[in-house]
């Protein structure tokens, strides 16, 4: 069952049941009132009849009879009964009154009057006179006017109810259509988005309702999907380009060497070039392999307790060997007093690789200007802050720096493949850490790494 | 045990005063440091009624600030016994005096040139109150850093 049908049914049922309840109340209360009204009318008749018939005073009696005949019209099926009570309160019950229960007569004798109804016929009894001439006067009549009135009311209410039901159903039909209109629009828009037009977005109306939120959520998801798609596409094209460049160089060099007889020295030089390019190729494939390994939750790595400051020292040693001109300063000013806060659990080799990658980048892209590596510990994390004064990263390119093979637009003068940073991030994530890169183009870059304390 | 009050605007820069505090008072006895952020008492009745239940002013404490104060506490683990951040609500001398008495403050340390940054529309610079409080006030000058700053966190490093 669609939401629309559900809304329709719920709306109709709710509204109709409220109308039904109100109609029922109106009918019940009117019915009740018409009863009391009718009982009062026949009670007056009973009293007048008793006075007309039973009072011995001739003048009075004649006046009552006249009043009765001239001003009180006879009601349908109006009947009168006069039952004389003896001293013990016994009386003879006429056959026409057999349908009356005994409690009715008791009530009359006790309280002076009583009402009873059997079917359409209404009975009212009153006690009249003083001992020894005591009577029970009973008047019965049919409430034709009242029942006609009630039937009319019933008919009107039923017609109203039916009309209202139809109206509500029709209103609910349009109402549910109107409510679900944005959803239908959204569905048709989403249906149009496929892999080849991922740039399409849903229209989000300028209102702050739930539909707007839903559209916004969809759009955010599409943003992420589009980025992921692009990354995938870029990766393939970049990878084939990066792998292809050394291969082209190797093939070109080999063809050049082979196209005529050359001296030993020339062959040697060609092979040297080929070797260099092949080593580069190997380096790229190895880094790619590492990237893939660390990207998959890192199977089978050993975790040991590592002291961060020692690790940073060994990273500095490695960089000193590779690039003796570096100006890496290690800032220990914020080290915690308690050494226990400097330990983390992890794979020393991988972390060494990650940190040396990042610090090496800092040296490379700042042309060996000073790089500061600061270490600090909060209660739950170790923070490593690496700052350089290099070329920085253009702000628009910051979202892509973790894409494999991505290189910022201002790095053309520097050697690199664009694998180092993604690899470092994979390693840090593997250790439950986080890496944040802040950068201003032309001023420098600051990389903040947080790793959980062991 | 010494209790030191430092006014803060939740910038990392204001935390650097702690270095001087430890240098100056840290020898011998452990320090309890109270970082105080001053805010106006809210004006509307509704806000006043909800004041004790509401904790939206705790959102002013940024993650960077929290981390930086933890770093400082770890660095001076033996000198600093406790370091907490408190809010001063109101702007009268009496409120401030009660605050100082409640936290048992021995001395106030302020940065000499304090470029107060309003952390929220209700924040204010308590310099005036501090001057009138008759407590020993020490001003420390924070060296301007000539290095470029990329993130706020880097303010903390290098004294």
From TrEMBL, chain A:
Residues 238-454 form the Histidine kinase domain. Pfam families: HAMP (PF00672), HATPase_c (PF02518), HisKA (PF00512). Its EC number is 2.7.13.3. It comes from the Bacteria. Keywords: ATP-binding, Cell membrane, Kinase, Membrane, Nucleotide-binding, Phosphoprotein, Transferase, Transmembrane, Transmembrane helix, Two-component regulatory system. Gene3D superfamilies: 1.10.287.130, 6.10.340.10, Histidine kinase-like ATPase, C-terminal domain (3.30.565.10). GO terms for molecular function: ATP binding; phosphorelay sensor kinase activity. InterPro entries: HAMP_dom, HATPase_C_sf, HATPase_dom, His_kinase_dom, HisK_dim/P_dom, HisK_dim/P_sf, HssS/ArlS-like, Sig_transdc_His_kin-like_C. Residues 177-230 form the HAMP domain. It is a multi-pass membrane protein. GO terms for cellular component: plasma membrane. It catalyses: ATP + protein L-histidine = ADP + protein N-phospho-L-histidine. The keyword Transcription regulation does not apply. It is found in: Cell membrane. The chain crosses the membrane at residues 7-29, 156-180. SMART domains: HAMP, HATPase_c, HisKA. This is histidine kinase. The lineage of its organism: Bacteria, Pseudomonadati, Bacteroidota, Chitinophagia, Chitinophagales.
UniProtKB/TrEMBL annotation, chain B:
SUPFAM superfamilies: Adenine nucleotide alpha hydrolases-like (SSF52402). This is Universal stress protein.
């Amino acid at each position: 069952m669609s939401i629309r049908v559900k809304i329709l049914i719920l709306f109709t049922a709710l509204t109709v049941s409220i109308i039904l309840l109100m109609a029922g109340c109106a009918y019940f209360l009117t019915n009740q009132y018409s009863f009391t009204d009718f009982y009062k009318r026949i009670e007056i008749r009973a009293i007048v009849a008793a006075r007309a018939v039973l009072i011995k005073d001739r003048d009075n009696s004649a006046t009552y009879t006249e009043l009765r005949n001239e001003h009180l019209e006879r009601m349908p099926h109006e009947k009168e009964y006069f039952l004389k009570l003896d001293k013990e309160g016994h009386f003879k019950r006429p056959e026409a009154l057999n349908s009356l229960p005994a409690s009715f007569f008791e009530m009359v004798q006790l309280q002076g009057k009583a009402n009873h109804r059997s079917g359409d016929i209404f009975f009212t009894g009153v006690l009249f006179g003083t001992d020894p001439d005591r009577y029970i006067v009973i008047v019965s009549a049919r409430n034709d006017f009242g029942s006609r009135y009630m039937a009319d009311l019933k008919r009107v209410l039923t017609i109203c109810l039916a009309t209202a039901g139809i109206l509500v159903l029709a209103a609910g039909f349009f109402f549910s259509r109107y409510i679900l209109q944005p959803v239908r629009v959204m569905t048709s828009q989403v249906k149009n988005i496929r892999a080849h037009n991922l740039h399409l977005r849903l229209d989000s109306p300028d209102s702050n309702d739930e539909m707007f939120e839903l559209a916004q959520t969809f759009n955010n998801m599409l943003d992420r999907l589009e980025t992921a798609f692009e990354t995938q596409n870029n990766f393939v094209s970049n990878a084939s380009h990066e792998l292809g460049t050394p291969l082209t160089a190797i093939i070109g060099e080999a063809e050049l060497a082979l196209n005529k007889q050359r001296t030993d020295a020339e062959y040697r030089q060609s092979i040297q070039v080929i070797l260099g390019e092949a080593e580069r190729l190997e380096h790229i494939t190895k880094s790619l392999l590492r990237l893939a390994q660390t990207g998959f939750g890192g199977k089978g790595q050993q975790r040991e307790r590592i002291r961060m400051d020692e690790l940073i020292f060994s990273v500095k040693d490695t960089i000193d060997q590779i690039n003796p001109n570096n100006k890496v300063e290690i800032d220990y000013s914020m080290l915690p007093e308690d050494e226990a806060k400097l330990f983390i659990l992890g794979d020393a080799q991988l972390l060494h690789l990650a940190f040396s990658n990042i610090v090496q980048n800092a040296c490379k892209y700042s042309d060996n200007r000073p790089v500061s590596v600061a270490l600090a510990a909060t209660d739950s994390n170790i923070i490593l802050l690496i700052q350089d004064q290099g070329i920085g990263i253009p702000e628009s390119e910051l979202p892509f720096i973790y894409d494999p093979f991505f290189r910022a637009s201002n790095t053309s003068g520097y050697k690199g493949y664009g694998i180092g940073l993604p690899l470092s991030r994979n390693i840090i994530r593997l250790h439950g850490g986080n890496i944040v890169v802040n950068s201003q183009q032309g001023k420098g870059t600051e990389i903040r790494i947080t790793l959980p304390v062991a | 045990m010494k209790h030191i009050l430092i006014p803060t605007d939740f910038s990392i820069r204001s935390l650097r005063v702690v270095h001087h505090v430890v240098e100056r008072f840290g020898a011998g006895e452990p320090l309890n440091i109270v970082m105080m952020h001053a805010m106006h008492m809210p004006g509307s009745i509704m806000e006043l009624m909800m004041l004790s239940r509401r904790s939206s002013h705790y959102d002013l404490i940024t993650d960077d600030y929290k981390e930086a104060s933890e770093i400082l506490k770890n660095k001076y683990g033996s000198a600093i016994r406790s370091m907490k951040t408190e809010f001063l609500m109101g702007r009268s001398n009496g409120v401030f005096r009660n605050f100082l008495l409640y936290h048992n403050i021995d001395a106030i340390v302020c940065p000499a040139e304090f470029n107060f940054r309003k952390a929220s529309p209700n924040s204010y610079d308590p310099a005036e109150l501090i001057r009138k409080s008759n407590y020993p006030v020490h001003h420390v000058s924070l060296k301007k850093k000539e290095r470029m700053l990329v993130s706020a966190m880097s303010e903390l490093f290098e004294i």
